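Morning. Coffee machine broken again, so started the prediction first thing and wrote up yesterday's gels while waiting. Chain of 66 residues, entered below exactly as on the submission form.
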Amino acid sequence: MSSSTAMDKHVGGVAEYRASEGKTVEVPYKGPVDVTLQDILGGLRSTCTYVGGISIKRTYQTYHIY
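Came back before lunch.
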């Protein structure tokens, strides 16, 4: 919870010692999300090959991802 909007909603505002991260914007509809999700999954699968994993699930179970 880092945006000013989220902090206002959940804790009543941004504390003096904190800085908000990002901002809340409305993004116009651009189409189904499935294409974007497939791109993200493709990137994850590619990452698995770099670390020697055979699948996303197996890589997550085997390696520590920081």
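The mean pLDDT is 78. Going to sketch it on the whiteboard this afternoon.
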